[in-house]
Design a protein that fits this description.
- With 352 residues, this protein is mainly β.
- The chain is built from 4 helices and 18 strands.
- Strands 5, 6, 7, 8, 9 and 10 form a 6-stranded antiparallel β-sheet that branches. Strands 11-14-17-18-15-16 form a 6-stranded antiparallel β-sheet.
- It starts with 12 loop residues before the first helix and ends with a strand.
Length: 352
Amino acid sequence: MRTEYHGRVPLTSRRCRAAVGAASAALALTLTACSPSTEASPAPTATDTAAPIDTPTPEATPTETPTPTPVPVSDSIDGFSVVGEFGQQPALAFVPPFAIDETRSRVLIEGPSTAPVLAEDSIIEVHYEGHDARTGTKFDSSWDKGGPTVMSLQGVVPGFTKGLVGKKVGDRVLIVMPGADGYDSAGGNPQAGIEVGDSLVFVVDVLASSVDTATGETLSPALPVTLGTDDGGHPTVAIPAGAAQPTQRVVETVIRGDQRGVAETDLVMVHYRAYSWRTGALIEDKFDQPDVGQLSSTIADWQEGLVGVPIGSRVVLVAPDPYPTGNQSPAIEAGDSVVYVIDVLFASSVAG
C-alpha cells in the first residue's frame, strides 16, 4: 500500500532520533556505572518477652572479620584465551581472581583492512559478553539475550570506549579494564555482583559502525543527472537541459561502503539532498544534520531502493513520482520527479 507523506521529509527525524537514543540507552544501562541501592534496611523490632532472670547470658565470643586477600595487579592480558568465530558466542577462559593495572585491549579476529575505524563518537552495533575478573562470573551477554545491541561510545563506561576506539568494524576485541574504568565511580554494581575495585573483561564483536560521510570504493555508473560538489564538499545535482522526466525509479551507487547492506526492517541514519526534476532546485537539504528513521516509514522509492545498499555508501536515487498529489514541505508539485543523493551513515536491526 502506497503511503502519502504531506508536510514530511522522507525520514521522521524527531520520533526516530528518540528511537536511536532509546536503543543506545538500553546498552548504557548495562555498561554505564549503576548506582548502588539506597533502600533502607528494616529497623529491628524490640521483643516483648524478657529473658528469665535466673538464666545466665552467655558472653559473646568476639569474631574477627576476615581481611580480603588483595588481588595482585597485572600489566598483561596474555593469560586470557577466547575461542570461537566472529559473530558466534565466545568461550572465554582465564584464571580468577584477576586485576589489571589499566584498560588493555587486543584484537582477536581482524575485520577487513578497509573497514571503518571506530571513533569516540561512533554509534555501533555489537555483540558482547562481560565477566567479573575477580570472580570469573559472567554478568551480561548479548548472545544470551538473543541478539546484538546498539550504543554510542559516548554513553558507556570509560574502559569500553578506550578499548574500542581505533578498532574496526569486523574486529573481535578483548577488553580488560580496571574498576576505575568500570563501575567504581558508582560504588560497584551489586545487582551484578561487581564490587568496587573489580576489573572487568569483555569480548566484543563490532558488527557495524556509523560514519560521518560516505566512504569506500568510488564508482562511475551512468547517471541521468550530473553529479557535482559544492564549496562545502556536499553533493550537487544538475538536471540535463531538455531531459525527459523519468518514468522508472533509478538507483545507482556512486560510493560503495564496506559494511553490511541495509535491511528492510532497519533503522537508518542518513545525510541526503533532494532536487526537483522540473525546476532543478534544491528542495531539501539534510547534509548538516543526520536524519534518522525506520526505513519502513519512508516513501516507497526509499523502502525498495535502499535495501541491500552497504552502510557507508552514497546513492543517487531518482523517484519518478513520489508524491502524486504534491507535498507541502518540502514543496513538491504533483507529478514531479525528485532526485535524491543519499549517504547511508548507519543502519541497525536492533531498533527495527
